[in-house]
TrEMBL record:
It comes from Halonatronomonas betaini. This is Epoxyqueuosine reductase. It comes from the Bacteria. PANTHER family: IRON-SULFUR CLUSTER-BINDING PROTEIN, IRON-SULFUR CLUSTER-BINDING PROTEIN-RELATED.
Length: 250
């Protein structure tokens, strides 16, 4: 029998617990959220038009794909808090980015092993670096895939807002067995999309990359690279638009 959502949740929780037991890890995460998309969801095909024709369908990553598991690892409150002040990304925020990317790769490895032990298959791109550095187009956008799975809704800051907020990271894994799919949430979680208020993410982007009606991806990426240079090239981060705002932690 294939893994259930309950099994998946427990593998993710055990992996987090083992990982945080490692004395080199300083980041902490709150209860993960999990949501599943059907690999046949018509929105996957639409991503080829919305993002790029190079964006993969689940069955291009895994022949015979049936479901896409997506999960959100919300940062503990001190992590977004640490990044509120100043122009540069905080060291704690940069560490959380690196440590969470590693955690996602271990979670996917552990899930894959358990899935294969049951006679099924799984495949998933890394938490980051799954995009072209030239045009900054992703061939597997975790946040769009997570939207399809109903893990949250987009905010004005172009990030996914989940029921635990938007400060955290998303992982995903394509599998060749069926899992229950939830309906996508219909209520807006972004105050701007709800009633036109807030826009705090735009105020926080002092670099001018994020505006009410536009997003300058190249300018944003240049800020991420500035911070990466500060942190030995290992953390393309900024996140000022996702901290100290009403949707950061819910
Ligand atoms: S900061 Fe406000 S406007 Fe921006 S995404 Fe969050 S809720 Fe929406
Ligand atoms: S990550 Fe930084 S540069 Fe990019 S939109 Fe957010 S605040 Fe602006």
């Amino acid at each position: 029998m294939a893994l259930s959502i309950r099994d998946i949740k427990s593998i993710i929780n055990e992996t987090i617990s083992d990982y945080t037991g490692n004395c080199n890890i300083i980041s902490k995460w709150k209860e993960p959220l999990i949501s599943v998309a059907s690999a046949d969801d018509l929105y996957f095909e639409k991503l080829k038009r919305i993002i790029s024709e190079k964006h993969k369908n689940p069955d291009e990553l895994l022949p015979g794909a049936e479901s896409v598991i997506t999960y959100f690892l919300p940062f503990a409150e001190e992590i977004p808090k640490s990044n509120e002040a100043g122009r540069d990304a905080s060291l704690i925020w940069a560490r959380a980015y690196i440590e969470t990317n590693r955690l996602i790769s271990i979670i996917n490895k552990n899930l894959k092993k358990e899935i294969e032990d049951k006679g099924y298959n799984a495949a998933g791109p890394a938490a980051t670096d799954n995009f072209s550095k030239k045009d900054l187009i992703s061939y597997w956008s975790h946040k769009h895939v997570a939207w399809i799975a109903g893990l949250g809704r987009f905010g004005l800051h172009k990030m996914l807002i989940t029921e635990a907020g938007s400060a955290g990271r998303i992982g995903s894994l394509v599998v060749d067995f069926e899992l229950p799919v939830k309906a996508r949430p219909t209520q807006e979680l972004c105050l701007y999309y709800k009633d036109g208020s807030c826009k705090e993410c735009i105020r926080n982007c002092v670099f001018g990359a994020l505006e009410e009606n536009s997003f300058n991806r190249q300018l944003c990426y240049s800020i991420l690279k500035e911070n990466a240079a500060k942190y030995n090239g290992s953390a393309d981060v900024c996140g000022k638009c996702t901290v100290g705002v009403p949707c950061a932690i819910l």
